[in-house]
Sequence to fold (215 residues):
Amino acid sequence: MVLVGLVGGFLWYASDYYPAQDVALAVLAQDGDSITVQDNLTILSTQAPSDTALIFYPGAKVEATAYLPLLDQIRQLGVTCILVDMPFRMAIFAPNAAQGVMEQFPDIQHWYLAGHSMGGAMASQFAADHPDQVEGLILLGAYLYGDYPPADTLTIYGSLNQSVEDQLDYTENVVEIPGGNHAQFGNYGPQKGDPPASITAAEHLVFAGPKNLRP
Fold:
């Protein structure tokens, strides 16, 4: 009975998540053939063939689709973006998901890994464990977890996201978004415990997208 209660409690916890909102859903609806879904992967293709790709791990309990506005900007830089829909919407249950993605796309020569919040922590762990496979790491509202070089890492966080700033023990390639918070890297609305941002979501993505993300 105790086990049943624990399982039931976890399933209830996991089912209470942040769904993608209208801006993200519009990206999915408008981009037609340039965005495809294969099992748990959403692939944002570039206009011209590319040998560079970014694998993205979503934040905990956030619908993966919420990150499409950000990834849509990145793919316009000529980088194929592959969004991973995690088990129970938590990257902690599939930290090595990037390995399977890489095996599915043998034509990609240059791999980058990115993640938001818990997704960033798990992406960092994978990069630390597989440094020869990952050319660079991008952490959004997250910090290095594992022994991966800061020189190959771009860390971006909102100035109102104090919990991330307090954990940073490195300064190389760190970008603070003035007035940014934790949630606006994705389009999923306010997040519990996260202060309201003093900039718009569009302004936030300028820092998280083309302004700084150039693998």
